[in-house]
Each structure stands twice: as structure tokens, then as C-alpha cells.
Design brief:
The protein folds into two domains: 349 residues, Glycosyltransferase; 257 residues, Glycosyltransferase (Alpha/alpha barrel). Helices cover 53% and strands 2% of the residues.
């Protein structure tokens, strides 16, 4: 049997059916998808520290449950990773070590025995010393600087957390803060449109941390001279700004670490009863899971729903799987998630979508592209002419994306031209997603789109051409691989660009990245995962569908079809015929924090299998 003929087998058909059934069954009550993010040692550590500093007695039970979970999930070598499936890393280990160490006094056995907390702390200290050379502030700060460079978005919060946990000495004394840089929180008093003109030292989404962490450092170890005087003058103004950008549910970006950093900083400077801290505590209390842990973020409901809709539609059979009433419910839900006014946090214009349906989300490019593409997929022949509200929403989303483009033609995540730090620069995966959003809507709506979208598409393609690596691959921003030497994931990045452009060199690279058995990892030679194999198969199947009489294109199409079929067989076997979908931590959250999402292997597999099913034997 040739590789492509597997796609006509009963085994493949059964796996295709079961995977689709599993995806459709994963919907929540009102028809969309919510998913579930992995529990996070980093989130759990920061949350229990925030609760401890606000009121240790009141939150004793939650703190103990969180600390117990941390001790139970510590790796054998003494470290912690970003998920329980991840390898240990310095950032998360420092945070967990400090949080558990701060609970030791409350857990003393009193009889000379060593408690589980103390044993965990000793194991963590040995691991940290092995990476930094010591537990003193200077060595730890230097080690973090080696990791993050000039980007202080995460390094300073880590150092602040460790200091507030007493690991550098009494946090009320100036010496404890000697190695903790002072963030320029006074700059947050400037009009938001000026932020891109000054050196904020943190990325756009971290404004709350800039304010709160900058303030606690200034309050507990103030500097001298005019700058310190200016910071004192800006304290009240920036604190008001912090309150103004906090969502009503208290969770900044729905993110446990960011909300925890803000809350612990306010509590440490005597503002534990401030309304911002109070809302932060309420968010953290609601977010704790039954096992005592916290996730990195509440949910990725909008992102997960758009991925699911586009996966269901990948084989051209969306109407078979989603009845008209279901499509209408999802459409209405998606339309309800679009932002209709300027966002108070980032100042983003109306027209975008966030990753979540909760108040802490902010509009971003990847989710806006996904929403536009999903709206296009939901529009079938029976709904034409398209409802004006759908056309208006999609057009507004595309224009929002075009207006976000940087000078290099690429699309950033949140804010145009904010800075040169990660997550504010242009990136290939998001730029490719923008091109796919334009193409998906253009295919079904002949009413015409603004000319600026055509210009934006041309410059986006030039950006992708300029950022392609010499070997033909692209490196994404929001996904990585812990086994890759640079923790990058060129398979994900290249697959997303190939889906948008059918680039020949990128396709060749994907074919080479696949193992003989059809599995694909984050790059050539890396351990395969369901998620990475699936995105590669989807892209290769897309190329296999190209119709061309050109000999070179025909040969590439044939090899792509064979590779897609091998990958589809691997997915069929690895998922137990479309029934089980174990996760891998390939998602990269803010500040390169790893996460896994239960929907990813399922959604990516459905998209891959549905697309592969369209590959014909004459490819």
C-alpha cells in the first residue's frame, strides 16, 4: 500500500470520525469551546506568595494547598518546570523555592524532624546553586540577566518575588533590594500614546507589573536625587492608572502571575487593603483549582473556539458536522467577543478579538485573525447574502490587523511600534495568520475589501520573505519546543507560513523535518508530538492540493502528499485511532512560560486529518 492510499483506508476513516466526534463533544453548554490549560508551578508559587503577604491567616488553607501541590510536583532533581510535564528551569524554580521557603516557619514540626517543605527547599537550593553558583542576590540576578538580557519584563518580577519572600534578607531593609533593578514606573504617568517613545524596559502587556513592582522597590528601598523625587510625585498618579486598567474581575490579562505580582507588591508596601489588591485577591481565590494549583491563565476560549471551527471546516464538511443552529450560536458568540471601543488597557482601537471571553483579555493579532477566519468558515451557501453584521465585523477585524502592521510589514501581537522586546515585534506565525484571514474572507465575499488590505498583504509577504531562514524555515513567537537548542519551534512557524503561502522551500523543509515513521517534533531530529506532527501534516496536505502542470510543482505536490499521508498514519496510531490526545507543553505564554492546552492535540489532529482526507491518490 502506498502512503497516500492509507488515506482511503477504513482505519483512517474511523480515526477521522472518532476525532471529529471527540472535538464536537468538547463544546461547552452554549456551543463554543473553552479548553483547559495545564496547572502551573510558577502561577501557584506567585499566587500563594500574594495571598500570604495580603493576609496569611485568612488565606492559610489556600496557601497550604498550593504549597502542598508544589512539594508534590517538584522534580526529582529539586527543580520545577512550567508544567508538570516540563523540564526544570531556573525562573520557575526560583519562584517555587522562595514561595515554599516562606511557608516553612508555619509548617515547623517542632520535634526536630524535617518537614516535607524543608526537604523541598533544601533540594531546590542545591539545584539553584548548581546553576548560579550561590543563593545570594548578585549571583541569582546575574543568572537571570544571562537568560533575559535587557528585557526586564520577567527578570525583575522574579527578583522582587524572591526578595519579598525573604530570600535576600529582611525585605524591609535596603540591602535586600541591592540586586533588584528599579523599574521606571513614573513613565506610566505619561499619555499612553507616548509609551513607544520612551524606554519602558518592559513589554506592552506588562504595564501593571511596571507600576506595582516599580512602586514596591521605590517604597522599600528608595533611591536618591531628582529621579527619586519624581517617582514619589508619580506614585499616586500611576496607582490610579493601575486601578483604571484593572478589569472588573481583578485578573490582569486573566493571568495568575501578573495579578499575583501586582497584588504582592501592593501588600508589601502596606496597601494590602487597596481596591486593586482586593480585586486581585478575589481573582486569585476564584482561580485556585481543587488540587491546590493555579493555571497560567484562566482560559483560551476565543482562541480555542476559532481553532476548533477552522479545524472542523478544514475538510470542507463543516455543515455536515455543525447544524445551522449550532453555527448560528457560535457565530453570535464570536461576534459578541469583538471589541467595539478603545481598550482601556492597551489603547487598542475597536475591531479586534482577545484570546478569552473574560474581562481580562485584550485584543491581539493572532486571535483577531482566527476570529475572522472562523467567521468566514461559518458562512455557508445557505447563509448568503452574508448578514451585514458579519461582513462588518470581519472587515473591521481585517482593517484592525492592517493598521497594526509594523514598518517592516510584519504583524506584532498587541501594539504597533511599541518596542524591540519580545512579544512587541513582528513575527512570522502571526503575519501568516493575517494573510490566511484575508484569503479566507476574500474567497467567500466578492463585495470587495478596502485597498489598504491589499497593500498590507503585499508588505506582509515581503516581511515573510525577508525573515525566512537560509534553510527555508521560519521561527514563530507563541510556540516553542523545550528540546530545541534555542527552545524554538520552527516546525510550527514554518507550517503556519506554508499554510498561508505554499512556499516551496518551506514545504521542502517540512518534508525533511518528518521522521521516516511520520512523526514530527519541533525541528528535525527532535522527539515527535501530536501537536507538531498535526500542524506539519495540515500544511503538507495544503500543498498537496495545489493544481499545477509545472513539473517541479507536481513533484513537490507528490512528495507533500506522501509525507502528509505518513504523518496521518502516525497521528492515527498515536491517538489510538482518534480516541486519546495526550498533551505536550509546546505553548509559549508571556515571557516564554511553557504551557499545555488540552484542546491543542485534539484540534490540531482534526485539522490535519480533515485536510489530509482531501489529498487524492494522483497527488
Amino acid at each position: 500500500m502506498t502512503p497516500v492510499s492509507f488515506l482511503s483506508s477504513g482505519e483512517f476513516a474511523a480515526a477521522r470520525r472518532r476525532a471529529m466526534e471527540a472535538l464536537l463533544a468538547a463544546r461547552v453548554g452554549n456551543g463554543h469551546w473553552t479548553g483547559r490549560l495545564s496547572s502551573s508551578p510558577l502561577s501557584t508559587a506567585t499566587a500563594i506568595t500574594a495571598l500570604r503577604l495580603v493576609d496569611e491567616r485568612l488565606h492559610a488553607a489556600a496557601i497550604r494547598r498550593g504549597a502542598d501541590w508544589l512539594v508534590a510536583t517538584q522534580l526529582a532533581d529539586g527543580s520545577w518546570g512550567d508544567t508538570v510535564e516540563s523540564r526544570g528551569n531556573l525562573s520557575t524554580t526560583l519562584l517555587a523555592w522562595a514561595a515554599v521557603a516562606a511557608t516553612v516557619d508555619a509548617a515547623q514540626a517542632g520535634d526536630g524532624t524535617t518537614t516535607p517543605y524543608e526537604a523541598a527547599v533544601r533540594r531546590a537550593e542545591r539545584w539553584i546553586v548548581g546553576r548560579t553558583g550561590g543563593l545570594d542576590a548578585a549571583r541569582i540576578a546575574a543568572a537571570l540577566a544571562d537568560i533575559y538580557g535587557r528585557d526586564r519584563t520577567f527578570a525583575v518580577p522574579i527578583l522582587t518575588h524572591v526578595a519579598l519572600c525573604g530570600r535576600f534578607g529582611d525585605p524591609r531593609r535596603r540591602e535586600a533590594w541591592a540586586a533588584v533593578p528599579q523599574l521606571p514606573f513614573e513613565l506610566a504617568a505619561l499619555p499612553q500614546r507616548w509609551f513607544r517613545l520612551v524606554d519602558m524596559q518592559v513589554v506592552s502587556y506588562a504595564l501593571p507589573a511596571l507600576i506595582a513592582i516599580g512602586q514596591v522597590r521605590h517604597a522599600l528601598a528608595p533611591g536618591l536625587g531628582p529621579t527619586a523625587w519624581l517617582r514619589s510625585l508619580a506614585t499616586a498618579t500611576t496607582l490610579r492608572k493601575l486601578g483604571a486598567i484593572q478589569p472588573e474581575n481583578g485578573g490582569f490579562l486573566e493571568a495568575t502571575p501578573l495579578t499575583s505580582f501586582v497584588t504582592m507588591s501592593l501588600a508589601a508596601m502596606g496597601l494590602g487593603r487597596h481596591e486593586v489588591a482586593g480585586r486581585g485577591v478575589a481573582f486569585l481565590s476564584r482561580s485556585q483549582r481543587e488540587d491546590g494549583s493555579w493555571p497560567i491563565d484562566t482560559n483560551l476560549a476565543t482562541w480555542g473556539t476559532t481553532l476548533a471551527v477552522n479545524a472542523v471546516s478544514a475538510g470542507g464538511r463543516l455543515a455536515e458536522h455543525l447544524a445551522a443552529v449550532d453555527r448560528e450560536a457560535i457565530r453570535g458568540w464570536l461576534l459578541g467577543q469583538q471589541y467595539r471601543s478603545v481598550h482601556r488597557y492597551t489603547g487598542a482601537a475597536p475591531g479586534g478579538w482577545a484570546w478569552t471571553d473574560l474581562p481580562g483579555g485584550v485584543p491581539d493579532a493572532d486571535d483577531t485573525s482566527g476570529a475572522v477566519k472562523a467567521l468566514a468558515a461559518l458562512e455557508t451557501a445557505e447563509t448568503r447574502p452574508f448578514p451585514e453584521d458579519v461582513r462588518s465585523a470581519a472587515t473591521a477585524g481585517l482593517v484592525w490587523l492592517a493598521d497594526l502592521a509594523n514598518r517592516d510589514g510584519g504583524i506584532p501581537t498587541f501594539c504597533r511600534g511599541w518596542g524591540r522586546l519580545p512579544f512587541d515585534t513582528s513575527c512570522p506565525d502571526i503575519t501568516a495568520h493575517f494573510l490566511r484571514a484575508i484569503a479566507s474572507w476574500t474567497r467567500i465575499d466578492r463585495g470587495g475589501l478596502p485597498s489598504r488590505l491589499s497593500r498590507a498583504a503585499r508588505t506582509a509577504r515581503r516581511y515573510l520573505a525577508a525573515t525566512q531562514a537560509a534553510d527555508g524555515s521560519w521561527t514563530p513567537l507563541w510556540f516553542g519546543n523545550e528540546h530545541h537548542p534555542a527552545q524554538a519551534n520552527p516546525v510550527y512557524g514554518t507550517a503556519k507560513v506554508v499554510l498561508a503561502t505554499c512556499d516551496a522551500r518551506g514545504t521542502e523543509w517540512l518534508v525533511r523535518a518528518m521522521r521516516a515513521d511520520g512523526g514530527v517534533g519541533g525541528g528535525p531530529g527532535l522527539p515527535p508530538s501530536i501537536e507538531e506532527t498535526a500542524v506539519a501534516v495540515e500544511a503538507l496536505a495544503r500543498v498537496a492540493s495545489i493544481e499545477s502542470g509545472d513539473a517541479a510543482t507536481s513533484d513537490l505536490r507528490r512528495r507533500s502528499a506522501e509525507a502528509a499521508a505518513r504523518g496521518a498514519r502516525w497521528l492515527t496510531e498515536r491517538t489510538g485511532g482518534g480516541t486519546t490526545f495526550p498533551t505536550a507543553p509546546i505553548g509559549l505564554y508571556f515571557a516564554k512560560l511553557w504551557y499545555a492546552e488540552d484542546l491543542y492535540p485534539l484540534v490540531f489532529t482534526v485539522a490535519a486529518i480533515e485536510r489530509a482526507a482531501t489529498v487524492t491518490s494522483d497527488a
